[in-house]
Amino acid sequence: MEIVERILAGDVRAAARAISLIECEDSLALKVLSEIHRHTGKAYVLGVTGPPGSGKSTLVDSLAQEYRKLGKKVGIIAVDPSSPFTGGAILGDRIRMQRHCTDPDVFIRSMGTRGAMGGLAKGTVGAIKVMDAFGKDVVIVETVGAGQAEVDIIKSAHTIIVVEVPGMGDDIQAIKAGILEIGDIFAVNKADRDGADRAVAHLRSMLELGTEPKDWTPPIIKTVAKDGKGVPELLAKVAEHRAYLEKTGGLRRKEREKAEREFREVLRERLAQYISDKMDKGEFEALVERILRKQVDPYSAADDVLAKLETK
Amino acid sequence: MEIVERILAGDVRAAARAISLIECEDSLALKVLSEIHRHTGKAYVLGVTGPPGSGKSTLVDSLAQEYRKLGKKVGIIAVDPSSPFTGGAILGDRIRMQRHCTDPDVFIRSMGTRGAMGGLAKGTVGAIKVMDAFGKDVVIVETVGAGQAEVDIIKSAHTIIVVEVPGMGDDIQAIKAGILEIGDIFAVNKADRDGADRAVAHLRSMLELGTEPKDWTPPIIKTVAKDGKGVPELLAKVAEHRAYLEKTGGLRRKEREKAEREFREVLRERLAQYISDKMDKGEFEALVERILRKQVDPYSAADDVLAKLETK
What we know:
With 312 residues, chain A is an alpha/beta fold. Chain A has helices at 2-8, 12-23, 27-36, 56-69, 91-96, 119-133, 148-154, 170-180, 196-209, 231-248, 250-278, 281-292, 298-311, and strands at residues 44-50, 74-80, 106-112, 138-144, 159-164, 185-188, 220-222.
């Protein structure tokens, strides 16, 4: 496929187009993903998550700059599920990122929620693969750490940085409980504010509450993303975590889990497609109508469909 | 099934047990859901969503009390996805709800995120069905209006109330953009605070930004949930919205969409089960390994599986 060859040759417009195809669930997207698969697996995927207002985007920006200093090519995927119905990303964030606009080796893409549940996670996995095949050494995925969808997205990352800020209220603490468990590294951003040390101590004590002792103790780094302070230290911790994963076989395990997850997802979709090919529209509609009228329950209806499939 | 008969007879322990089975994805749950299906469709489902700290739970509490005054039996499902890994609900919220503890006609259940993505939405749909079959006239589903999962959950509601409070920051505004579009009724809660009228005006102007003109103009009600102020007015608006849906065929359309969504979901799951029954574990593992080694891409692997299915 021409578009795949162009992605592999480093054509930014081809890569951008491929991600758009994925996001719109265009049928061509599957062909692209199918063909690029064997060219993936080289990029290191970094997840950055945290509540709104924690300065995540600025931190991602600074991380990208640090990686550029090391000569690494960087891809950024900013996931913004705040508007599930319009699919719009927050304009301000995107404008801010124009700092990298003139650097061809930083490729930024924002993704909003489209289509059905799971669409965003699936789309993000696809976008990561495109950036990987496109030759990015590091792909940074930025999400708001709130719902289940974001947690599923961040699972695609090799290393997860959770961003906090000093002095957040109790409501935020509740949200934090869920993402504490997924953080490999913690950044207390806006650390020039009052209460940074208290926030670090609080995080530390919450982390120590975790029941199972782990080989990897998540470090907590104070950062001031807007000035780049603490960002080299953060990068060093990412490198340490990567080395740890490589040494312990964790990297391979993560890759395997990712492959299995993706395969299961694809299988499920193909099956759904298969069944709707086998079943005519009228038949499906009639079944929905019968379910609605309580003449049959959805479970028995599904069993009937499968039984028919067997004999076709 | 005994448990189903007991639910239909109004045995609260049977209903609670059924919801637990659903939440744990016990195989018995499917049988229960299958059998109760024809006893559902009577309850009116009210969705209440809003950001943390907006006083949603107190408002739900007051709504339940108002419905009790009208002699309605009420079920409450408090969905709390804040901790996707531990499945825990915020204890404080649940304790607060003990106000209804001695009233057998208010049945409260909280649900945390369990298992895979979609698990929470699926579990909530199941819990609504149990409460419906159990004889509740009104089922109130309470969610934090953030991620995609919550939006999917709230879609099960006939009428959606979006709760806001005066003086929330810009970060919250961003989240709001997504849920503005799903609100049938808006409640500006904690309206005894400064800025309540400004919040109403702000909401009104944001709602008017919506491009497509609708038959139903979402009303905005000021409430002080802790004192029950504005709650009867809110209930009156729910009744108005219900009448509107009944008149315009919207209720039937919503029911049909729900039936179709549920059927598709069940079909997908049954298919996944079907394929893993047909495929031995070794075969699946071998394919994942080949995907991992980039010897095959997940799409081609899925096609192979389906092709084999055809000839079996």
